[in-house]
Amino acid sequence: MALNKKTTIIAALGALILPVAAKHHEVEAPAETASCCDGLSGLYGIGYSSGTFSASDGSEADADGYTLGLRLDIAEDTEIFFLYQDYDSGDFNEATAILRRSYDLIDGFTTKAGIGYGTQSVGGSVASNAIVGEIQIGTEIAGIGINLTYDHNFVLDSEVNDDFATMHLVGIYPLSDSMNLWAAYEWQVSGDTLVEKDDTTSIGIGIRF
């Protein structure tokens, strides 16, 4: 993808996120709103992950690992999401940080757009650093939350990975007001990378704070 096309897409995603700061300052806080001293709210989660990966030479391998996630709610419609995944004791790992904003575009669905930064490492060496653009749509069916997320990685400085994209399908079942059970399925949909995620599944627990 040409650099000017990348820049246009990244700038457009940023334009969706950055106006939230001004909007947030325009809203008068209700009397019962907690002060900053009461701390941030959000969600953190941990899970077991397993998947099938393929290399650029056509070989395939299965690997197990873990997933760590953290969501910080910084405004009513804005959050920061951190995700770290590690497979095969560090042979393959990814870390992503995304600033997201929510939009009520369709009745019964929540749409989120985000922009952030991601890195992927293979065998202890960095395979790519990227600007990440994200689109997510979510709904609830029979009390179970369902989210479908598309991440596009605009690779910045790698001779190993080209631009690549992944899809994430996540189901969330509430166990209590502060805890949920989640399951996720992820697969790479495009891009030429040193190691490709053919399909991975994860299951874990999320805790609100």
Please write out the topology.
Layout: H1 3-17, H2 20-26, E1 41-55, E2 60-75, E3 78-87, E4 92-103, E5 110-122, E6 125-141, E7 144-155, E8 164-174, E9 179-190, E10 195-208
Antiparallel strand pairs: 1-2, 1-10, 2-3, 3-4, 4-5, 5-6, 6-7, 7-8, 8-9, 9-10
Could you name the key traits of this structure?
single chain; 209 residues; mainly beta; Lipocalin; 10-stranded antiparallel barrel; 11% helix
What does this structure look like?
By secondary structure, the chain is mainly beta. It has helices at 3-17, 20-26, and strands at residues 41-55, 60-75, 78-87, 92-103, 110-122, 125-141, 144-155, 164-174, 179-190, 195-208. It has one domain: Beta Barrel (Lipocalin).
